[in-house]
Specification:
heterotrimer; A mainly alpha (about 550); B alpha/beta (about 210); C alpha/beta (about 400); A: about 550 residues; 24 helices; B: 4-stranded antiparallel beta sheet
């Protein structure tokens, strides 16, 4: 009975706030919001928006970063998977990359900034020996006007995401046997993969790719850390306007949010054009019998790019960690003059509260998401319908609609109902973003589960709930805990929803870290970013160790 | 006609309007009905219908009476239709004894009593003292016997066999077949066997229904 | 959970509050009684660790002494707190607001005062510790960026624009002595100077400093911006910036986002001259290991901008009594002396030290202001802050000219 509630609840959760939020953004964008004195519809906010200096540049940067980021990350993933799947290197790299998924975007961005700045780790490593630099060169790398470092930051962070999504799709299209087949027909590895498996794989991961585009066109935290400043990408400026003391700016900011929506939509449309073009080229090449057996160099590029992405994140995180223990550390020293725990000791008393909030919010949101996902999946078993496309679109909705576009309106709703900055409101908003990831990670193992175990349990006279709690969930324990760890990691890393709905009263490690970014204190940023990546890592550690410990005498549970 | 046994009353199963099977048959306690057909013929759907786990994609009708009780109106867990698949499907997260204790009806109270019953059942299939083992460390034949002991412990009304011997090698297959049929007869269970192996059908010594040919 | 419960309690408490009148600082015992058990949400910029940890200390003392819990809501821009009050007023939440105390001055104060978003009538001069405040010698305590304070905010600290350089890298004799000098210096040392990107407060202050030095008649700046003459008045500033910006760090294509980011640039040797609105900032940074101990301060002999920063209470604050107690505690000689210690924060006091009793005076005398801090008589003359409308107008104009890539 309870399971019947699952899908409608999940749909309401995913679509409800987005629709309400979009309405709450759209109306003020066209001048209507009686509470703030806007009683009639007008195009004034839109006109004001287009008069804003650099608004087109901001939009173009956002658009370009969405497309470039996604295209580069996807190409790297294709080359790597096509060129190396089934090899031992592939398995190793896969293990190397997986933990990177849980590193919050802000932490990865800080790491990259500390690495590539003219006074950063790379410059220190080669100075003054190779370069002769006694002082950092006056080079505009971080915050460059074209947004290259921002795109780089997004690319290295999206590669693990796209790779893992692709890996999940591979078994469903029987890529291993397809590869054997295409090889036997004389195709090179990359051509064989592109012609044989990729169209099917892409159909499975398409929405995830859309989510990457939407995220990269509207990201706030990464853009604030690495992105251009004159002008800043659209979403960053929107968020600033939203927080302006001037009342009329709300209308203006809402109009900006609608523009953001249009920019993201445009990026998606252009991407669909890319898809068509890519497919046409592929079909032509395929039709011509193009085999491309000498693709070793391209495969090597794929592997190198993949390793580079991983190395950048790891090195960045290591640099962050070092800064958190640094005393005075002048350029071009590779290591600090002194190491001390001073920063940690000074920061410790202030970390407690945001840490507790982070844990509570992430914990409750994850728990609810796991429960709700389980109900939906149970219902799916009962009805035998997965609702395939539509259901999937619903699941991806919060990831494809730009956050700023509906969070503004949602924030207004919370303010009007007096629930802003309350713990339930914050948990609720986190749940919207945690739910898709938990559902997606849980659904594959859930659907792959051998349902004959349940038939046997039923034949033994066991009730449904007994079977669920006594057989299915224990057997899926690792999958459930992994999904929970994914959800936990997502919640820990959420920036914009926490800033807007927590409204400064409910801080998490991530909002504190990004707030501190404006202060530029590398030592303190190091501490926070370190915690930011530690928390998700703890989640995954629990998800791995707990089942291993409980089922240490059950060999079949380790597979 | 007696109430005892399993009575399939005008059972019909169809997929997308195409009838896969339709039959009326009475299986006496201790008797075996064998249903034969090539793979994909839908013969397993009969067991799924009786057991209560038929995929909603199929349309099925007809009553299934076990000792006079209509199973089709009951939820799967109240039908007490014990089933053996071609894989033993021992719960991998439980010990061998845990698998057996799980099957014992809840009216048997007390941990010691339940364990004692499980141990006895293990001894009954020639595996005494193996209760603490991890099921994954057993041989294929041992697993099959534990699965049989497990289903018998649950005191089922009927036994449904879904090609349970097909993955065993020749010798083991003969032994298991014998063991299963002897035990079913001892317990007075009506048995429905689904198979594509003629030798299974011969050993079952009962009527054979062929479908999908 | 604890926070949530507290929030719920505060909400219920505020419902009762709505029935009662606002607390009257003249009846201080009554204020103290009401304040006990209240939670004060202090909305203050949270980008500097030393300030955060000073507030941590203040919170502990307030809890111990008055049973008031102080929660520091860390902002990256004070305007956010103002925006919250604005949104609450718009939503009709005239009681139990989420902001109890704001660190504020200038533009934000002016706009809150204009919109009647502040607790009134004036309360600051009724606080017990007001008697020590040096309002006579420090005129910016009663006039905040030309706007009369009228007791609507309580002074917290003094600010003056001061420049820093690393004496190990730059020669003190070559340092600029005026805005004009600075441009000449930048021509000789391209890429070695920058200013935070307006509308950052310190960056906007740099614009005002330059304008104040170059404007034909400085008294124009004391009046609100007149659109008709703005272009002409501001022309020297933008002519100056047109020349200076290409000579800046990164060729003026990117700017540090605020003072701490600029401090990091000095530490990394990326720039040679930086400036802050706090004379002892450099000493604090040396004490914290953020800058080398060879950093020194200097100002312009003809004067630099000076102002005061304050704390204010929104009209709809949930914990007004608690906020009053917190404001008074921040004014106490003990809290002010600790704040002035460069090892803690190094923010100059608003008190007249001569008026304190011997014990409190000793607290100030004992402070080692640090190797890089100029003595009060070395700070040079103060230039008055222009009217707040100038800051906003200059920011907009700056953004129009330089804030968007061409």
């Amino acid at each position: 009975m309870l399971t019947r509630l699952g899908p409608p609840l999940a749909m309401a959760l995913l679509a409800g706030p987005i629709l309400l939020g979009l309405a709450g953004t759209m109306l003020p964008a066209f001048g209507y919001l009686p509470a703030l004195g806007g009683a009639e519809f007008t195009l004034a906010p839109t006109r004001q928006l287009f008069a804003e200096p650099g608004i087109w540049m901001s939009s173009i940067i956002s658009l370009a970063s969405g497309l470039v980021t996604t295209a580069v990350a996807l190409i790297v993933v294709i080359l790597f998977v096509a060129g190396w799947s089934g090899t031992r290197i592939f398995a190793r790299v896969q293990h190397l990359i997986s933990p990177l998924l849980s590193v919050p975007h802000a932490a990865a961005a800080f790491g990259l900034a500390f690495l590539i700045a003219p006074s950063g780790m790379i410059a220190r490593l080669i100075s003054p020996g190779l370069t002769g630099w006694q002082r950092p060169p006056d080079l505009l790398i971080v915050n460059d006007p074209m947004g290259f470092s921002m795109m780089a930051g997004l690319i290295v962070k999206e590669i693990p995401f796209l790779l893992l999504i692709t890996l999940a799709a591979l078994p469903q299209v029987d890529a291993t046997r397809t590869r054997a087949l295409t090889t036997s027909l004389g195709y090179g590895k990359i051509a064989g993969f592109l012609f044989g498996s990729w169209p099917l794989v892409y159909r499975q991961i398409r929405l995830a790719v859309f989510a990457v585009i939407a995220f990269a066109t509207s990201v706030v935290d990464v853009a604030a850390i690495l992105g251009p400043t004159a002008p800043a990408p659209l979403a960053v400026r929107l968020t600033q306007w939203m927080q302006d003391p001037d009342l009329s700016m709300r209308f203006f900011a809402s109009a900006g949010a609608v523009l953001q929506l249009a920019v993201t939509a445009a990026a998606l449309l252009i991407w669909i054009g890319f898809e068509r073009l890519g497919a046409a080229i592929r079909d032509r090449a395929c039709g011509a019998g193009w085999r491309w057996r000498r693709d070793a160099w391209l495969r090597r590029i794929g592997l190198t790019a993949m390793l580079l992405a991983a190395a950048i994140i790891f090195a960045g995180l290591a640099t962050l960690c070092l800064w958190s223990f640094a005393g005075l550390w002048p350029f071009p020293d590779v290591l600090p003059e002194t190491l001390s725990a001073k920063t940690w000791m000074k920061t410790a008393p202030r970390i407690g509260e945001p840490l507790v909030t982070t844990f509570i919010v992430a914990g409750i949101a994850t728990l609810l998401a796991v429960l709700l996902s389980t109900l939906c999946l149970m219902r799916e078993n009962e009805t035998g319908r997965t609702g395939r496309r539509w259901a999937l679109l619903f699941i991806y909705l919060p990831l494809i609609v730009p956050q700023v576009a509906f969070l503004f309106g949602l924030q207004l709703l919370f303010v009007l109902t007096g629930t802003i900055a309350s713990l339930p409101a914050l948990v609720f908003v986190h749940l919207i973003f945690v739910m898709p990831y938990v559902f997606l990670s849980l659904s594959d193992p859930w659907r792959a589960y051998d349902r004959r175990y349940e038939a046997i349990a039923a034949g033994l006279g066991k009730r449904r709930w007994t079977t669920l709690l006594g057989v299915r969930l224990p057997m899926l324990m690792r999958a459930v805990l992994t999904a929970a760890a994914v959800g936990f990691a997502v919640s820990v890393g959420l920036y914009l929803p926490t800033v807007l709905i927590g409204a400064g009263r409910l801080d998490t490690i991530t909002t504190d870290a990004v707030a501190l970014a404006s202060g530029g204190n590398r030592r303190v940023i190091g501490v926070y970013a370190f915690l930011q990546m530690l928390l998700p890592a703890l989640g995954f550690l629990v998800a791995t160790l707990l089942p291993a410990l409980i089922f240490r005498h059950r060999r079949a549970m380790h597979a | 006609m007696t109430d005892k046994g399993l009575f399939l009353d005008t059972v019909s199963i169809a997929l997308n309007g195409r009838v896969l099977l339709a039959l009326t048959h009475h299986v006496l306690p201790g008797g075996v009905l064998t249903v034969m057909g090539p793979s994909g013929s839908g013969k397993s759907t009969l067991l799924a219908y009786i057991g209560g786990f038929l995929d909603p994609a199929f349309q099925a009708s007809g009553r299934v009476l076990a000792d006079g009780v209509d199973l089709t109106v009951l939820p799967a867990e109240e039908r007490h239709a014990g089933i053996l698949f071609q894989d033993p499907l021992l719960f991998p997260h439980m010990s061998v004894a845990g698998n057996l204790v799980f099957a014992i009806p809840s009216h048997v109270k007390g941990k010691a009593a339940r364990l004692a019953r499980a141990d006895a059942a293990l001894a009954g299939v020639g595996l005494d003292g193996m209760g603490n083992r991890d099921p994954d460390t057993l041989s294929g034949g041992q697993k099959a016997r534990v699965a049989l002991a497990r289903v018998l412990l649950s005191a089922p009304r009927a036994l449904l066999l879904d090609e349970p011997f097909s993955k065993l090698d020749q010798d083991l297959r003969r032994q298991m077949r014998e063991l299963v049929f002897v035990r079913a007869r001892e317990a007075g269970l009506p048995v429905i066997l689904v198979t594509h192996d003629e030798a299974d059908a011969e050993a079952a010594l009962g009527p054979v229904i062929r479908i999908g040919e | 959970m604890r926070k949530f419960l507290l929030g719920a309690v505060a909400l219920v408490a505020s419902a009762f509050h709505a029935l009662a009148a606002d607390p009257d600082p003249a009846k201080w015992d009554e204020v103290l009684r009401q304040a006990r058990g209240e939670t004060v949400y202090f909305n203050a910029w949270g980008g500097a660790e030393n300030i955060n940890s000073y507030l941590e200390w203040a919170g502990g003392e307030l809890q111990k002494r008055y049973g008031v819990k102080l929660v520091h809501v860390k902002l990256d821009d004070t305007a956010n707190a103002v925006a919250k009050v604005v949104a609450e007023k718009a939503a009709g939440r005239n009681d139990g607001g989420t902001v109890d105390l704001i660190w504020i001055n200038g533009e934000n104060f002016s706009s809150m005062k204009r919109e009647n978003l502040l607790l009134s009538p004036g309360w600051a001069e009724k606080l017990p510790n007001w008697k020590f405040v040096d309002a006579d010698e420090k005129p910016t305590i009663r006039t905040d960026f030309t706007v009369p304070v009228e007791g609507l905010e309580s002074p917290w600290g003094m600010a003056k624009l001061v420049f820093f350089h690393d004496s190990a890298r730059t020669n003190a004799a070559d340092l600029p002595k005026s805005a004009g000098d600075l441009l000449e210096w930048a021509k000789k040392n391209p890429g070695r100077f920058s200013y935070p990107q307006p509308p950052d407060f310190v960056g906007s202050s740099f614009l005002k400093q330059v304008l104040s030095e170059l404007v034909a008649d400085r008294s124009v700046l004391q009046k609100p911006v007149d659109e008709a003459s703005f272009e002409q008045v501001a022309a020297p500033l933008f002519a100056y910036l047109d020349e200076l910006n290409p000579l800046l760090w990164r060729g003026g294509k990117a700017f540090p986002q605020n003072y701490p980011a600029m401090k990091q640039l000095l530490a990394d040797g990326e720039v040679d001259i930086i400036f802050a609105f706090n004379p002892s900032e450099a000493s604090s940074a040396i004490a914290n290991g953020e800058l080398p101990d060879t950093v020194r301060s200097f100002t312009f002999p003809a004067g630099t901008l000076a102002n005061t920063h304050f704390v204010a209470i929104p009209y709809n604050a949930a914990a007004k009594a608690g906020a009053l107690v917190a404001a008074d505690f921040l004014l106490s000689p003990e809290a002010q002396a600790r704040k002035q210690d460069p090892k803690v924060w190094g923010d100059p006091t608003v008190l007249a030290v001569s008026r304190l009793d011997a014990a409190d005076r000793a607290r100030f005398d004992a402070l080692d202001l640090g190797i890089a801090t100029l003595k009060p008589d070395e700070l040079g003359p103060a230039i008055d802050e222009p009217h707040p409308s100038w800051m906003e107008r200059l920011d907009t104009e700056w953004k129009r000219r330089y804030g968007a890539a061409n």
